[in-house]
UniProtKB/TrEMBL annotation:
Residues 7-83 form the 2Fe-2S ferredoxin-type domain. It comes from Streptomyces pulveraceus. The keyword S-adenosyl-L-methionine does not apply. Transmembrane segments: none annotated. PROSITE patterns: 2FE2S_FER_1, 2FE2S_FER_2. This is 2Fe-2S iron-sulfur cluster-binding protein. Keywords: Iron, Metal-binding, Oxidoreductase. InterPro entries: 2Fe-2S-bd, 2Fe-2S-bd_dom_sf, 2Fe-2S_ferredoxin-like_sf, 2Fe-2S_ferredoxin-type, 2Fe2S_fd_BS, Aldehyde_Oxdr_Iron-Sulfur, Beta-grasp_dom_sf. Signal peptide: none annotated.
Length: 185
């Protein structure tokens, strides 16, 4: 008996469940784009080097071109299409818009998904390669330009909108910090 090379899987994407028959070799990116018509995530290098395909899986960044769709079953997947709350843009989306954090827009969905995770990782106290003080009692480092650049380094922009991207991430992080302080008060 020959083993099956396909399965019917259920993917939880942007709060909706999709039953999808896929070949076991289908990447999450191809499932999103080709099977579900969620074309916000882009196919750039198809090797995990450009970040254009970045989505959030269980709240963490994932390169959807490197993850198999069958491995995403049972996980919570957020694509750029699910980031906004109805007509209300996510603060990162709004900051990218306000500060021209994009030019051609091809890398923008991956940049925005990555930036959302960067802000959450930073707020949780996760260090980066440029974090000076790694002692647990040092607290959360400032999210300055150097930290943002390092944390966003897996996302390439061929147009070179990096200055505006860094500014947009900083503004969105500042807005998120303000919201966190209001929630505590």
């Amino acid at each position: 008996m020959t083993p099956s090379t396909s399965s019917a899987i259920t993917l939880n994407i942007n709060g909706e469940k999709y039953l999808l028959p896929v070949d076991h070799r289908t990447t999450l990116l191809d499932a999103l784009r080709e099977h579900l018509d969620l074309t916000g995530s882009k196919k750039g290098c198809d090797q995990g080097q450009c970040g254009a395909c970045t989505v959030l899986v269980d709240g963490r960044r994932a390169l959807s071109c490197l993850q198999l769709a069958v491995a995403a079953e049972g996980r919570v997947i957020t694509t750029i299409e699910g980031v906004a709350d109805g007509d209300q843009l996510h603060p990162v989306q709004q900051a990218f818009l306000d500060l021209d954090g994009f030019q051609c827009g091809y890398c923008t969905p991956g940049q925005i998904c990555s930036a959302i995770a960067v802000i959450e990782e930073h707020a949780a106290g996760w260090p980066s390669a440029v974090t000076d003080d790694l002692r647990p009692d040092a607290g959360v480092p400032a999210l300055g330009a150097e930290e943002i650049r390092e944390r966003m380094s897996g996302n390439l922009c061929r147009c070179g909108a990096y200055v505006s991207i860094v500014q947009a991430v900083a503004r969105a992080a500042e807005a998120a910090g303000s919201q966190d302080k209001e929630a505590v008060a």
